[in-house]
Amino acid sequence: MKRRDALKNLGLATGFFVVTPAVISLLQSCTSDIKTWTPDFLTIEQSEALTKLVDVILPKTENLPSATELNVPQFIDKYINIVLDDDGQTQMNTAFENMISILKPNTEDRMDSVKEEDYKALLDDHMLIKDEIDEEREANPEALELTKSEFLNTLKFITIKAYLTTEQIGENVLVYDPVPAQYYCGDLQEITGGKSWSLGNTLVI
């Protein structure tokens, strides 16, 4: 299998992850409290790291819930467990372990000893922005293993996508139109007060 095919099979990278009715159903099935959640695929350490990481990406604010409050970690775990094939799951497992080894160099330490600043530093050091060079990929262009940048950007993308797809955000924060595929002519500020539509197939011209 070539690296390009391996990344595509993950179904998580930008351009491949599509919000289908099945994905929405999977997201809506994530209702367990984060404190009592038992992951289906991830290890306990991996789930703890994911929980902290998604809240660094999308923290709680005065007006918005955090990613964990909307069950984003549970969704990512279920997505990996149900949607990805064996190769994809192996890639994700390896990537999670690589991330944990950075956050917790001493394997005997507990995940709850890792501070929020450590997660922020991880993102600052390894999550590249557009046009920045992934030196890890440049050094080994055909490796099937995800680089740290590819993995963290993947997690960021799916975290945001899942967050925006939740019922609470879609109906209470974004502009919700229960009749999709309608077309509106005008300025977005005038029509919605500047808010985005919760249904991706509603177009403002």
Kindly describe this structure.
There is one protein chain. This protein is about 50% helix and about 0% strand. With about 200 residues, it is mainly α. The chain has 2 domains: about 5-175, no CATH class; about 175-205, no CATH class. A two-stranded parallel ribbon has the order 1-2. Helix 1 (about 5-10) packs across helix 5 and helix 4 crosses helix 8 (about 150-165). The longest helix has 18 residues, at about 85-105. The chain is globular. Residues about 5-15 and about 195-205 have low confidence and may be disordered.
Walk me through the topology:
Blueprint: H1 3-10, H2 21-28, H3 44-57, H4 72-82, H5 86-103, H6 116-126, H7 135-139, H8 148-165, H9 167-172, E1 183-184, H10 188-192, E2 203-204
Parallel strand pairs: 1-2
Helix pairs in contact: 1-5, 4-8
Write a compact overview of the structure shown.
The chain has helices at 3-10, 21-28, 44-57, 72-82, 86-103, 116-126, 135-139, 148-165, 167-172, 188-192; strands at 183-184, 203-204.
How do the strands of the widest beta sheet line up side by side?
1-2
Shape: globular
Beta-strand content estimate = under 5%
Average pLDDT, all residues? 78
Number of strands: 2
Helix content: 40-55%
**Helical run tally:** 10
Report low-confidence residues grouped into runs of 5 or more. Answer: 6-15, 196-205
Determine Rg (CA atoms, Å).
18 Å
Provide the structure class: mainly alpha
Q: How many separate domains make up the residues?
A: 2
Distance between the termini: 43 Å
Largest sheet: 2 strands, parallel
The string of secondary-structure elements, in order, is HHHHHHHHHEHE
